[in-house]
Specification:
This protein is α/β, with parallel strands linked by helices and about 450 residues long. It is built from 20 helices and 14 strands.
Length: about 450
């Protein structure tokens, strides 16, 4: 079993000694640092599984350390130690990506519960997440990432599907980084961004003089990636005539450059991605079914940002750290501003979120970004999540409608399905704005035993 290592950061050496004894007695490995700068040096030497840092320290404080850690390894959990008077700042740190905060004097049981809760049985997971560079706390995204890291070890073709801005290329790079081909090239191309008449040459290369403007031999991406990975983004937009040629390349493991009569063997793994519904395009005759099955040996579906809202605070912290490293001024979000970001509609997913964060940083006149600034950046997308009562009411309304559909509009049958009497069912319909006239009862066989 791998020993989980905790990095403790505090300028109080006495506290560090006490915490070290407590954690080592529980079987943890412990590394200590008396400053944030020393903690960053420890990260270069050894990757811990968990960081516990004081918020208030001379020089670089815990908030800046959090930002630096997230820029290097966004998946590494960081918890804050704070005094009673610093709780508002600790809450802000939590919004910025800290997984928890503990108040001095530290309670032994609460300390262990915090560490155990965030580590669980996932020893080494921080290393994997660091290597692939994907920021997530979401169980849905973690499941996808786990599948990706498993399939990375093989040679199967992988088709990544998901809406624009969900991180399809990032996941493809993670698969390459976790594969035996990681030391070889990763070559990406957006099939929708290259004119159809040039795409074949970009992929397979061309011979000098093969067409007007071909003044020199061109290797092509497949041969440039030999031994490594080719990533075909937006494969659903590939022209039909080129789909046939790509299928042959996948089958024969060789390419024929434009203008050449001979073929050249290539050794590449093909990953592809699309935001389109390929089965629907197959049905419409716009995409070859045989190519689809060649590409989709393993399929991975990326969730939208709205499906992984718990990832918004750490994603925001990660982007802030990136901007800080690029020379932007340090900015943090107020608690209500972060709430707006978490509750907003994100049709553009992570790409849109990062654009909003960059805009907020560029336009902010103070260190703290306000809710009003976020609202201006979001525009029409500054919606809020429904309340629990609203969500419950919407669920009940949909449930009642489904029962009435199943019962062919017969109120008595629908009431029996719901386990209610007819009078109560009428009251529920009335409360949720459903008129009996919407469902005209008809005599037909109901596909359930009423």
């Amino acid at each position: 079993m791998v020993t989980k290592n905790i990095l403790l950061v505090d300028d109080d050496e006495k506290l560090l000694r006490v915490l070290t004894l407590r954690l080592e007695s529980e079987g943890y490995g412990v590394t200590v640092a008396t400053s944030a700068a020393a903690a960053l040096a420890r990260l270069d030497e050894q990757q811990p599984h968990f960081v516990l840092t004081d918020l208030r320290m001379p020089g670089m404080d815990g908030m800046e350390l959090l930002e630096r850690i997230q820029a290097r390894c966004p998946q590494l959990p960081v918890a804050m130690i704070t005094a009673h008077g610093d709780i508002p700042d600790a809450v802000r740190a939590t919004h910025a990506g800290a997984v928890d905060f503990l108040v001095k004097p530290l309670d032994r049981d609460k300390l262990l519960e915090c560490i155990n809760r965030h580590l669980g049985d996932q020893a080494g997971e921080a290393d994997d997440a660091c290597n692939c560079g994907i920021v997530t706390r979401s169980p849905l995204m973690r499941a996808t990432l786990d599948d990706a890291l498993r399939v990375a070890r093989g040679e199967s073709s992988v088709l990544i599907t998901g809406a624009s801005g969900t991180g399809k290329e990032l996941l493809a790079r993670a698969i390459h980084a976790g594969s035996p081909r990681q030391a070889q090239p990763f070559v990406a191309i957006n099939c929708a961004a290259v004119p159809a008449e040039l795409l074949e040459s970009e992929l397979f290369g061309h011979r000098r003089g093969a067409f007007t403007g071909a003044h020199a031999d061109h290797l092509g991406l497949f041969r440039a990636a030999n031994g490594g990975t080719v990533f075909l983004d937006e494969i659903g937009d590939m022209p039909a005539e080129l789909q046939v040629k790509l299928l042959r390349v996948l089958q024969e493991r060789e390419v024929r450059p434009v203008g050449e009569t001979r073929t050249v063997a290539v050794d590449v793994r093909v990953l592809s991605a699309t935001h389109r519904d390929l089965p629907a395009r197959i049905a419409a005759g716009a995409f070859r079914e045989d190519l689809y099955y060649r590409l989709n040996v393993v399929g991975l579906q990326l969730p939208t940002l709205e499906q992984r809202r718990e990832d918004i605070p750490p994603l925001v912290a990660f982007r802030l750290a990136e901007l800080l490293a690029a020379g932007a001024p340090r900015r943090v979000y107020s608690a209500d501003a972060m709430e707006l970001l978490v509750a907003a509609a994100w049709p553009g997913n992570i790409r849109q979120l990062f654009n909003v964060v960059e805009q907020n940083v560029a336009l902010a006149t103070a260190r703290t970004i306000s809710a009003a600034q976020v609202r201006r950046s979001l525009g029409d997308h500054s919606t809020t999540l429904p309340s629990l009562d609203q969500a419950r009411s919407e669920f009940t309304r949909n449930y009642l409608r489904q029962l009435l559909d199943l019962a062919a509009g017969n109120i008595s049958r629908a009431a029996r399905l719901a386990g209610r009497n007819r009078t109560d069912f009428y009251k529920l319909m009335s409360r949720h704005g459903i008129s009996p006239g919407e469902f005209k009862a008809v005599e037909r066989e109901v596909p359930i035993d009423c």
